Amino acid sequence: GKISVAIDGPAGAGKSSVARIAAERTGYVYLDTGAMYRAFTWAFLRARTDLGDAAAVQRIVETTEITAERDGVFVNGTDVTASIREPAVSGHVSAVAALAPVREKLVQLQRKTASTGGVILDGRDIGTVVLPDAELKVFLTASIASRAKRRWLELRAKGGTESLAEIEANIAARDKMDSEREISPLREAADAVHIDNSDMDLEETADLLCRLIKE
Ligand code: C5P
User: Fold this and answer.
1) 57-97: per-residue pLDDT in tens?
2) What is the torsional sign of CA 201, 204, 207, 211?
């Protein structure tokens, strides 16, 4: 039968590309939880919310409905699939992801999506917090240099103009905030399969993931 798969790791390790390929090949449902935190970040930026204002944060959390599906990411019906990849969102997402009301709402949504089984979720806290009972946990990582290079190629293909140095700095800053935050920091689950794909391409990594899913 189909299992639940949790993929965690630092920014730019290729989690979402690999998870998407594996989901397509295995017929699993894929959920990009990072896109959900990005969507909330987009909503806060648009509303010019002061993240230190708990009441304002609560108001946005209560009135914002986020869906992340195959055809894109939506905030109250607005398609934000492209906007959530912009540098302004990447620069603020770790601060938004550290807000308790945001995490509570999104974790609940993620568990609901996963409750059908046959799912691959990728993020930072999937194996440790969201799905601690997932049958397969993978911690996907790579050197900062190869992660930055990969993200740079990906963004450039989509018309992005950020330099390799800017991307590397952004990734390093996000990793630091994501692993040092109080709630659900980026952690490798004790029972995760550890994969360093610095010297593998995404296709090879996806092959490995598919083998692990079928085992
Ligand atoms: O996966 P991606 O790099 O797009 O995630 C964007 C940000 O969302 C991360 O840097 C992190 O701050 C946050 N995130 C999180 N927990 C998750 C997934 C993402 O805190 N499960």
Assistant:
1) 999 999 999 999 888 999 999 999 999 999 899 999 999 99
2) negative
Query: For ligand 1, atom 12, which residue shows the shortest CA distance?
Result: 94
Buried b / exposed e across 179-194, counting CB within 10 Å, b at 16+?
eebeebebbbbeebbe
Q: Which residue has the tokens 């949504």?
A: 109
Q: Is the CB of 11 under 6 A from ligand 1?
A: yes
Ligand 1 contacts CB of residue 37 (under 6 A): yes
Whether the model pTM is above 0.80: yes
Whether 33 lines ligand 1, by a CB cut-off of 6 Å, is yes
Q: Tokens 């800053």 appear where?
A: 173
The whole-angstrom separation of Cα 100 and Cα 183 is: 7
Say if residue 91 is exposed, middle or buried (CB neighbours under 10 Å; 0-12, 13-18, 19+).
middle
